[in-house]
Amino acid sequence: MYVVMQIGTRQYIASEGNTIDIDKIDKDPGEAVTFDNILLINSKDKITLGKPHIEGAKVEATVETHLRDKKVLAFRYKNKTRSGTKRGHRQHKTKILINKINIGQKKTIKKSTENK
């Protein structure tokens, strides 16, 4: 079973027991985190789509470490003058471990059989 969840402006595929790198969140290592913006659930040949999110579905995870991504280089060059500017950037990331995926139960509405 896996889910597609939205954290900030990015979407991640998660399944139980996996670790994923997400944009930095303000939690200490070892703390529990719950994500409730679940867009899709795929379990046993059944796919559930949200409109836009699935109500009641949650992903429980723990923060493992904070780290920095690989360096991305940006080079700006001006022709004819042979000058350029080189800049580098390393994005801050958080590594989380997916502990549990709660699908959320559908609410059933019982019809009243009383006659008024």
Structure description:
- The protein is 0% helix and 57% strand.
- The chain has 116 residues and is mainly beta.
- The protein has one domain.
- The strands form 3 sheets. A 4-stranded antiparallel sheet has the order 2-1-5-6, with no helix packed on it. Strands 3-10-7-4 form a 4-stranded antiparallel sheet, with no helix packed on it.
- Strand 1 and strand 2 form a beta hairpin.
- The protein is elongated.
- The model has no long low-confidence stretch (mean pLDDT 89).
Average pLDDT value?
A: 89
Distance linking N and C termini: 47 Å
Total discrete domains = 1
Relative helix content: under 10%
**pLDDT < 50 runs, ≥5 residues:** none
The strand line-up of the biggest sheet is: 2-1-5-6
Order of helices and strands: EEEEEEEEEE
Rounded to the nearest angstrom, the radius of gyration is 22 Å
Structural class: mainly beta
The gross shape turns out to be elongated
> Proportion of β residues?
over 45%
The beta-strand count equals 10
**Tally of alpha and pi helices:** 0
Q: The biggest beta sheet, please?
A: 4 strands, antiparallel
Summarize it:
With 116 residues, the chain is mainly beta. It has strands spanning 2-7, 10-14, 19-23, 32-35, 38-43, 46-49, 58-68, 72-78, 83-89, 92-102.
Walk me through the topology:
Elements: E1 2-7, E2 10-14, E3 19-23, E4 32-35, E5 38-43, E6 46-49, E7 58-68, E8 72-78, E9 83-89, E10 92-102
Antiparallel strand pairs: 1-2, 1-5, 3-10, 4-7, 5-6, 7-10, 8-9
